[in-house]
Amino acid sequence: MNYNAGVIAVCLAAGKSQRMGINKLALPWGKSSIGQSVLEKAVKSELSFTIMVTREADHLHWIDRSLFQTPLQEKWKAVICQDADLGQAHSLHTGLREAMEMEPKGIMILLADQPLLPVKIINDLVFRYMKGLHQNIDIPFLAASFQGIPRPPIIFSTKVVPDLLKLEGDEGARQFFRKAQLTGKLVDYENSWDFFDVDTKEDYEILKGVGTSSE
């Protein structure tokens, strides 16, 4: 039984990088950039497809040209969120609506500023979620966690999408967990660095001192 088809990722890449002052996704890291690293792992993972939600002013120069060529270009596309300045919820809505048109079995929320996230976590969550569906286990979400606290990436059942579309402004998945009375599942991982996100110049300096992760 192949458990790794049917999960589509929505990768949120439409933030203003306000605390960084420049587009943090374009910052060099490893052999590419912060945003490139996340997208490359997504398209090389067991995800069926990845939707990169971007802002109108982003010309995607931080994405290597190889990702625009076959076969990798068949695994993802960029979608512009016209009202990205109104908050993260609007970027999320854009990605969710696009993903639902593809009739997925589940939707994974990824953050484009988590370059240390290993492919093995993406694949593990996809496998667990699809295995659960095969066993008729109906759960609203399956989330990665560290010390019992949910962290992206998170796979949501399509049944939860109408509730996610009710989020407003800068509300994201974290606020959704607080507001919704849902019983999902957490998969605890041991390395907190896997979920490190880059928001400030200080974060970027820390990132540069950490080895790259892709496994």
Brief descriptors of the model:
seven-stranded mixed beta sheet; globular; two-stranded antiparallel sheet; alpha/beta
Architecture blueprint of SSEs:
Elements lengths: L6 E7 L14 E2 L2 E2 H10 L5 E7 L20 E6 L6 H13 L5 E6 L7 H16 L6 E6 L2 E8 L4 H4 L8 H7 L5 E4 L12 H8 L7
Parallel strand pairs: 1-4, 1-6, 4-5, 7-9
Antiparallel strand pairs: 2-3, 6-8, 7-8
Structure description:
With 215 residues, the chain is an alpha/beta fold. It has 6 helices and 9 strands; from the N terminus they run E-E-E-H-E-E-H-E-H-E-E-H-H-E-H. The strands form 2 sheets. The protein has a 7-stranded mixed β-sheet with strand order 5-4-1-6-8-7-9, with helices on both faces. A hairpin with a 2-residue loop joins strand 2 and strand 3. It starts with 6 loop residues before the first strand and ends in a 7-residue tail after the last helix. The mean pLDDT is 88.
Task: Give a concise summary.
With 215 residues, the chain is of the alpha/beta class. It is built from six helices and nine strands. 27% of the residues lie in helices and 22% in strands.
Integer-rounded radius of gyration = 16 Å
How would you spell out the order of helices and strands? EEEHEEHEHEEHHEH
Instruction: Give average pLDDT, whole number.
Output: 88
Instruction: Determine the number of helices (DSSP H or I, runs of at least 4 residues).
Output: 6
| Approximate strand percentage | 15-25%
Helical fraction equals 25-40%
Question: Describe the biggest sheet?
Answer: 7 strands, mixed
- Please state the structural category: alpha/beta
